[in-house]
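Fold this sequence, please.
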Amino acid sequence: MSEAKKNVDRTRQIFEEMSRTGSVQPLLDKLDDDATFKLSLPPGTPLSGEFCGRLAIVDYFDRLDEVLDVQEIHTWNFVGNGDQVIVLGDEQFIVRKTGRSCRSEFAFILDFRDGMIVRVLVIEDLSGVVEAFAPVGARAVARASGS
């Protein structure tokens, strides 16, 4: 079996287990100690920035639980190319600070080395999170621009 296929299978198992248990532990178990995790968010939210190393990524997921109440996650495609796997899906969540319910499609890009995840980049429309943490005057501008 090719390494790309193994990485796709690993990723599918991680997401299936996370969906089944509601826990991020399956992902954390496959992280390299020096892994990085980044969400496509501008500065200004508790989830913004790049989280480097296992402890920082665990801290990110603790923050995530404080910011969002994830209701549903669906994945529909896993595409592998060598050491990289792309997961396409969507999720529904509530932004705790505002109570706003959001649905958003996402792409997770996972880079593997020796069977372990060394980098995760999540590309997703999280404008509801950005709006919740924007200064009061900027919120009206964000809504007016469709963000």
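Residues 139-147 have pLDDT under 50 and may be disordered. The chain has five helices and six strands.
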